Amino acid sequence: MEKTLDHIGVAVRQLDHSIQFYENVLGAKLVDRYRSEKPGVESEIAVMEVNGTVTELLAPTNNTTSPIARFIKQKGKGVHHIAYRVADLDEAIHELKEKGIRVMTETRRINKHGRRLIYLNPADTDGTIIEYCDYPDEVILNAEKN
After folding, report:
1. Is residue 38's pLDDT more than 90?
2. pLDDT at 138
3. CA–CA distance from 98 to each of 92, 101, 131 (Å)?
4. Stated pTM of the model
5. What does the H/E/C string look like for the chain?
6. Domain ranges in the chain?
7. Which residues contact 47 (CB under 8 A, 6 or more apart)?
8. Which of 56, 84, 116, 124 lies 20 to 30 Å from 105, alpha-carbon distance?
9. Ranges for the VOC domain (predicted)?
10. Closest CA relative to residue 55, chosen from 24, 87, 104, 19
11. Burial level of 38, CB count in 10 A (0-12/13-18/19+)?
12. Closest Cα partner for 53 from 87, 115, 8, 117?
């Protein structure tokens, strides 16, 4: 299955400071900013775009339970994950399982933009946190246009 880079997630401590850097230094545009207090997310997210490339800035909202807070404590701020867009998330998960790659089923969810996502087990990816995602609503909208 074909994969394309969807976005890079960056763990930050101070979201406003990071937004200013991306805007003032990189010329990024703030596309969206939202909070998710769902268990296993507990983050505030700023979606930044530079010439069509998306970076999600991720700041923990709960320093006890947020996976972003845990990541920062263990590895420091910086690149948290790389997300790859696939045509069909369910099919991609099936292909991963056939190749012996585990997914973290508890991370499967749909975000506020309709993106379905799941994280691969870092033990199977040489320690890199990788997200697979798709946008099923976009497929439906494109089909309706044709």
Report:
1. no
2. 66
3. 10, 8, 18
4. 0.86
5. CCEEEEEEEEECCCHHHHHHHHHHCCCCEEEEEEEECCCCCCEEEEEEEECCEEEEEEEECCCCCCHHHHHHHHHCCEEEEEEEEECCHHHHHHHHHHCCCCEEEEEEEECCCCCEEEEECHHHCCCCCEEEEECHHHHHHHHHHC
6. 3-145
7. 7, 30, 31, 32, 33, 54, 55, 56
8. 56
9. 4-135
10. 19
11. exposed
12. 8
Sign of CA dihedral 15, 18, 24, 29: negative
Cβ atoms of residues 59 and 19 within 8 Å: no
- For residue 6, which of 141, 119, 132 has the smallest C-alpha distance? 132
Q: What is the mean pLDDT of residues 7-12?
A: 96
Q: What is the CATH number of domain 3-145?
A: 3.10.180.10
Tokens standing for residue 98: 């056939």
How many residues appear in the chain? 146
Amino acid at site 136: P
Q: How far apart are CA 36 and CA 27, in angstroms?
A: 26
pLDDT for the residue 118 = 96
